[in-house]
Amino acid sequence: MRRSVPLDGDDWEVRGFLGLDAALAAAKRNDTADRRGWLRARVPGSVLDDVWRAGEIPDPYVDRNSLLAEWVPERAWLYRRRIRAMDGALAARVVLRFGGVDYAGDVFIDGVPLARHEGMFTPFDVDVTEPLRDGGEHVVAVVVEPAPASEPQMGRTSRVRVHKSRMTYGWDFSPRMIHQGIWRPVSLEVFDVARIEAFEARTAIAGTLDRGTVDVHVRLARARRTPLRVVATVDHGATEVSRVAVEVGAD
């Protein structure tokens, strides 16, 4: 059984730092009493939008105001919000699921670093079972690194080294407004028995095109030791073409 609690909305805060080290140090201090410089943040969203809504920059879509916002992606930004484990989650496995962070960053719970991720378009999970074991209230923090270097439209694609939206670096129809932040949904996911952490399917077709094979690889994470049955099917429309089941022991 799986349960999900969305963490999207306006319950987040964000604060800028001149350097990545300062942002990481602030995340480790976990000083929720310090209110200096914190702005209301929206998730999913963009730091640039949060800063604009807070009145820290003028409307970037008016005249040449976008030039006054170019300092934003040069800073590291620290997101934070309070979370609480769901009822019944103490005997289960809990993960913090991020749909996407732009572009790279570190995840903390109560000042303890748990994971680092890089890649704007890649979802990732952070196991928070132990930190949330007591069922109380905790603080999740995400440090978003300064935007990486990339090329605008009048630049060389051969110099691009990051898988990040390049259009925001400056295009013929778009000013330079580089986004950062938690730009896809975030949720707490609770699994009572097990969950599929990773799935991969590889196909191979015979030379005669009349038969083929599908190799399926699955990585499981368990909430408790219990026998499992993993089933994979190949469907053609509404018709099931093939099925295979694997019994996984408690050990």
Care to describe what's here?
By secondary structure, this protein is mainly β. The protein is built from 2 helices and 16 strands. A hairpin with a 2-residue loop joins β15 and β16. The longest helix is centred in the first third of the chain and has 10 residues, at 20-29.
Question: Which descriptors apply to this entry?
Answer:
251 residues; 2 helices; 4-stranded antiparallel sheet; 6-stranded antiparallel sheet; 7% helix; single chain; mainly beta
> What's the gyration radius in Å?
22 Å
Assembly of the depicted chains: single chain
* First-last Cα distance: 20 Å
**What is the helix/strand order?**
EEHEHEEEEEEEEEEEEE
Mean pLDDT: 91
Give the number of helices: 2
Topology, number of strands: 16
Please state how the strands of the largest beta sheet are arranged side by side.
3-2-4-10-7-8
What portion of residues is helical?
under 10%
Uncertain residue segments: none
Major sheet = 6 strands, antiparallel
Strand content: 35-45%
Question: Which structural class matches the secondary elements?
Answer: mainly beta
Q: What global shape is seen?
A: flat
